[in-house]
Design brief:
By secondary structure, this protein is α/β, with parallel strands linked by helices. The protein has a single domain, classed as Rossmann fold (3-Layer(aba) Sandwich). Helices cover about 50% and strands about 15% of the residues. It has 9 helices and 9 strands. Helix 7 packs across helix 8. Bound molecules: NADP nicotinamide-adenine-dinucleotide phosphate. The site of NADP nicotinamide-adenine-dinucleotide phosphate (NAP) has 28 residues, from helix 1 and strand 5.
């Protein structure tokens, strides 16, 4: 198996212009996969595509916003038309937010749900018939914030938790069709320079640098996503904080609530 598992496989990656999605695209292209890159930032997307192609890999770009159903239809059709197949869909595109629930503007609520949950739902529904044919993989990139609701991250947590419900349902429904459904709980990960999060009134809040050694790199996360697909695993929980969060939430949920209440101020201050 090894690298050959991905050779000539057609992989659609949302949010491939930046961060984890871009790194996953590079690694999969290096393993011989044919990549459909998607995002809204045309320049960033073509940069990723040129890097892959210049290194002898295979990639095409589709510029579009996944919050729009018609765009998602065109995206999936573009992938199938271009490569004549669709084997793997990685729902990675996402946006985060910060702010007290009571202060959130409609646009913030709408944007976070539409990007993280609705967009992933649209693409998955549209791609499903093709994944049935290929007995492929449908992967959702969630977050450890999707295990337990965190203060000042309400819509982000809710959108990422929603992916769990979707993944569980589709996994069972598609069991007979041999579709692999994977869900990745990503922990705090290094970010691209200049990355922002969305504040309660829609403002862009710059995120602090995360180059500390305790934080997972984008490469580590990308490899974990790829391993999930390779092993056709359901849930992969990344980072020690993520694993601890999962255990505490399952066995002593009152403890996690207590710790969150005690540390709410720190979460507000260090949340970036
Ligand atoms: N980094 C972390 O610490 C962390 C932790 C837990 C979970 N995660 C999850 O991992 C995923 C990737 O995170 P990241 O840190 O790599 O994020 P990132 O660097 O901000 O990249 C996000 C990607 O999503 C795309 N995107 C956003 N809105 C879109 C839309 N409406 N339509 C199409 N594409 C859209 C962006 O592309 P354009 O700008 O080109 O549209 C970009 O390529 C996200 O789902 C995130 O929630 C990240």
């Amino acid at each position: 198996m090894g690298n050959n598992k991905f050779r000539d496989k057609v992989v659609l990656i949302t949010g491939a212009s930046k961060g984890i999605g871009r790194t996953t695209a590079f690694i999969l292209a290096n393993k011989g996969a044919k990549i459909v890159l998607t995002g809204r930032d045309e320049k960033a997307l073509y940069d990723v595509q040129s890097r892959i192609v210049n290194q002898g890999g295979n990639a095409v770009s589709f510029i579009g916003d996944i919050t729009d159903w018609k765009t998602c239809k065109k995206l999936v059709q573009f992938s199938v038309d271009h490569y004549n197949d669709l084997n793997i869909v990685i729902n990675n595109a996402g946006v985060s937010m910060r702010g007290n629930f009571s202060n959130l503007e409609f646009e913030v609520i709408d944007k976070v749900y539409r990007t993280n949950l609705i967009g992933a739902t649209y693409i998955s529904a549209i791609a499903l018939p093709f994944l049935r044919k290929s007995k492929g993989s449908l992967v959702f990139v969630s977050s450890i914030a999707g295990i337990r609701g965190l203060p000042y991250n309400s819509i982000y947590c809710a959108s990422k938790m929603g992916l769990r419900g979707l993944a569980e349902s589709v996994r069972i429904e598609e069991y007979q069709n041999d579709i692999h459904v994977g869900l990745i709980y990503v922990g705090i990960t290094q970010i691209d320079k200049g990355k922002t999060t969305i504040g309660a009134n829609g403002n862009h809040i710059p995120l602090k640098d995360r180059s500390s050694r305790n934080i997972m790199s984008q490469e580590e996360v990308a490899h974990a996503i790829i391993k999930n697909i390779q092993n056709r695993k359901f849930i992969s929980t990344l980072s020690s904080l993520g694993k601890l969060n999962l255990i505490v939430q399952k066995f002593i949920p009152k403890l996690s609530e207590f710790l969150l209440i005690q540390n709410t101020n720190k979460i507000i201050i260090n949340g970036r």
